[in-house]
Every structure is written in structure tokens, then in C-alpha cells.
Amino acid sequence: MASRKLSKLAAASLALAGLLGSPAIAQSPTYGVGRTPTAEELRRMDISISHTGDELPAGNGNAKEGAQLYVQKACVGCHGVTGLGGMAPQLRSKLAPELPVWKKERILPLRSPYATVVWDYINRGMPLGLEGTLTPNEVYSLTAYLLFLNNVIPEDMVLNRENLPKVKMPIGDEFGKPHDYKRNSPRLEGYPY
Ligand code: HEC
User: Which one of 39, 81, 88, 136 has the minimum C-beta count within 10 Å?
Assistant: First the structure.
């Protein structure tokens, strides 16, 4: 009796293993949680902008419009007037424009290797607490304003999807240059460890 039960069990588990191994079953919903996202949901999530700027939306903006938006959208409340003196990180270098960029502060609109990264950051993460509420034109304008504040572009330059990827950032080709490392010495010049 016991052995018959056991062999039934073995047969059942073999059948189950066979079922699980079959690709048709593996692809069907197994756990009953989640669902396929809709095209609209995917569109809203698919916001990454690469350095080539291929994914940038149409639109444009300049630093003058950006300066107004900087106040209207309350960037000023966290980052301070013209990017200085707020509780959040400073957005403008206080140091002389002629200093080499590696001697300046670590500020995104200054140290970023590509201007598209600045656009992507503002579009994705700012204003903090109201992320995703800025229109493409507003993001172009705010990007232009912050790049202008850091002497990267002239005040009257109108940024759009064609010229933003071509903006020459001050970091040039100096980004991430390896250096000689000696054990127990700082990893980068000026770093505490
Ligand atoms: C509620 C406060 C708040 C508001 C409002 C806000 N920010 Fe920020 N922002 C922050 C904080 C905090 C950080 C740093 C986040 C981190 O490092 O993780 C930051 C980071 C940034 C950075 C990157 C700074 C760097 O050098 O790494 C940029 C650029 C920026 N904000 C732009 C804006 C713009 C443009 C607006 C307005 C549309 C805005 N922020 C509104 C709090 C705020």
C-alpha cells in the first residue's frame, strides 16, 4: 500500500517536472501578480536621455526664460538666488571663470561630461517633490540658465534637441583621467581618502 502511494507520488512529481520544463507553461502567468504595462505607462517611464541626445523631445528654451522659471518653479527656495546660498547643492561656481574646471566645485552643470546629462537630471529629478512636472520647453530653458550661470553657453543661446548634444562642456576630454595611485594615498587630488 505504502509503496503504491509512493510510486503515485513519484509519477505526479515527474509529471509536474515535465510541465514546468515545458516552455509553453514557463511563459504563461504563473504567480498571478502584475500585468503587462500599457504603451502609455511605458512611454511615461521611458525617459532616459543618452549622451547623444537621440531621445530628446522637441522644444527649446533660453537662459532668460530659465531665470524666470527658476523662481516660478521654486528652484530658488532650495538652491538659493542664482544657484548660491540655499540648503540644496550650489548650482553655480563661485570661483574665477579662468580656473581649470578640475580646480572648481563639483557642480553638475559645470562638471558634467555632456549637457544632455544636465537636461536629463532636471527632467527626471527636479523640482524635488514635484518630479516629472516640467514640460520639455521648461527643461530646455532651465538647462540653458544653469549652463549660462556657469559660463558654458552665452545668455541668448536657444537650446534645442539639435544643439544641446553639441554643447562643449568645460570638462572637455579631461573626464575621468586615471592617475598614479599609491597605497594609502587619496584616490583623487583633494579627496580626504
Ligand atoms: C525641495 C528642494 C528642491 C527644489 C525645489 C529643487 N531642488 Fe534641485 N536639488 C535638491 C537637492 C536636495 C539636490 C541634491 C540631490 C542629490 O544629490 O541627491 C538637488 C540637485 C539638483 C541638481 C544637481 C546638482 C549637482 O551638482 O549635483 C540640479 C542641476 C538641480 N537640483 C536643479 C534644480 C532645478 C532646475 C530646480 C527647479 C526646477 C530644482 N533643482 C528644484 C533640492 C531641490
Answer: 39
